[in-house]
Amino acid sequence: MSQTFYYNQGPLKILDILKTLNLKDNSFSEDIKVFDIKDLFSANTSDISFFHSKKYQGIAQKTKASFCITTQNLKNELPKNCKALIVENVLVSTAKITALFYPNAINDNFDETVLNISETEFNNKVKFGKNVLIGKNVSIGSNCSIGHNTIIEKNVSLGENCSIGSNTIIRNSLIKDNVKILDNCVIGKHGFGFFPMKNSNLRYPHIGIVIIEDNCEIGCGATIDRGSMSNTIIGKNTYLDNQIHIAHNVNIGENSIIAGQVGIAGSSIIGKNVRIGGQAGISGHLKIGDNVDIAGGSGVIKDIPNNTKVMGYPAKNIREFLRENK
Question: How close are the terminal C-alpha atoms of the chain, in Å?
Answer without folding.
Answer: 47
